[in-house]
Amino acid sequence: MKTSLVALATAVMLATPAYADEAPASDGAQITVLATGNDLSLDQTGQAITVLPLQTIEAVQGVDLTRVLDRVPGLTWSRTGGLGAQTAVRLRGGEGQHTLVLVDGVRAEDPSAPSGGFDFGTLTSGGIERIEVLRGSNSVVWGSSAIGGVIAVTTREIDGVEASAEAGSRRSYDADAAAGVKRDRYAFSIDGGYATTDGVSAAASGTERDGYDQWRVGGKARVNLTDTLSLVANARYADGKTQIDGYPAPDYVFADTPEYTTTRQFFGRAGLHYAGGPLTLDAGYALSDTRRRYYTGGADNAFEYGYNGRSERVELNGRYSLPADFAIDFGADREWTRFDSTYDTRQNAHLTSGHAMLGWYTAKASLAAGVRYDEQSQFGSNVSLGANGTVEVVRGLRLNASYGEGFRAPTLYQLLSPDYGNAALAPERSRSYDLGVVYASQDGGFHAGVTLFRRDTRNLIAYVSCFMAQSALCQGHAYGVYDNVGKARAQGVELDVGAALSSQVKGTIAYAYTEATDRTPGAATFGNDLARRPRHALTTSLDWTTPWAGLALAADLRFQSESFDNAANSIKLAGGSVTTVRASLPILHQAELFGRVENVFNRLLVTAAGYGALGRSVFGGVRLRY
Q1: CA 492, 108, 559: angle at the middle one, nearest 5?
Q2: What does pTM read for this prediction?
């Protein structure tokens, strides 16, 4: 079965006549894959999508990817300590596990994690060329987990040799290198990096620092077998160690301990790409593998427990261009997941999916609607619908609207864990709506967008305590069990503005007001804010390219309002602001010096109660290109 989809796709590719590739993109517009699964101009979709290019990633500087993601309206994150600590990224007030993450097209999920969400603490900025962020549910195209939205990370295809290194506060060091060759008929590249820091104490009350180390290696390859058929492959491996704190005897309160975790991740994909005439096809095999280990540290440094999660996927996606500016995007895939741990025997599940989206795409207006069907070996079937549209009201001014349904399959841990699993769990489901207006000047010097959004989520999976409980649900579960018990609503407004104040000065604003509340009928927490969801989140930046030898100066401000750390809203997170200043100086055409001061005013922005946060930090580095 794993090879049948690829074999079928190959046969179709080789049998189809060759024509020039016809991408329905408007002149000068950015391209995204998140709207349909295939390349589409941003001004031909009604969905809210932000693209962060390499220029932005390098200008922000540093390995911490959350500082780049701060530039997306409606995106917030929380972290249990310093760099490398557990980091959850939320879109429009969703849970961290409601954000689907793709790394070079591979679903970066961990089936062994209780929630299954991606830990952004394990993903550094090294080797990344582009980040796309879709805000709103879109399971029609992307399937499970696309409730809050989708983040797609694309790594670089290098032509030449590049290297960078930086050093900074808390004995922080980062070094990256890449080399490759890029020609019309082939491209090969390899990159790698190492990052380390002494960090800060994971426990806010602690005094010993909890550090982080990670090395990574990756590569990409493309070979054009014919004028219309290409072989593509990519892989990324990371091995990291994060020091953490725990609950030592005799008080058993959160405090300094020598404990640490290790995480090994592999994301890889190989496939064929066909582009001929009205038809484009992508067929491939993808693998995601995550292995987590926990150790006591200290003199004995004993192994405590470990988790292994693995996902394999064969997929076929494509587009067929029809007459009169119509096109159909389609796909089918089969996924096999498994997990095991020190305390759980291996458990398996498989998922079969198919989707189709019919669209009408012109320069002035576009409409699209689609449907998806999923069949999972444990919970059964699910159907998702979605539609979106955009129309240019006057030159440069567009009105966007979208409706999307999302679902998240229960994780294998939630379904099949012998101690806590519930095989009767249903998928979490959402309905998402947004309406926006976007303006972009013809010269590209100004853009602004305002979007109203709402998402209703039901069947939320939560851990239910079975202590002293006699319910049928708790039969066979001494401590607790997972169940579909929750409902939630998130609604608000997003603002995204960018302006060239002069030929040398540019400014941006990304702001969102998000009201994310518990809507579970009869619950004591009904109407409360969901945990770790600040209602106000703002990022502003000002960049100035001076007339002095290309010296660039910049400043960023990140603000988050107060929020709560628990469902009862009894533990408050104060919120606050962090200011960063940056500078860079080109030297000839092959080198660049750069530096920054993060958190200039040394104000701690705590995003998880009881955990440490980074204070003022100073960094400097160099970047080389040949």
Answers
A1: 35
A2: 0.94
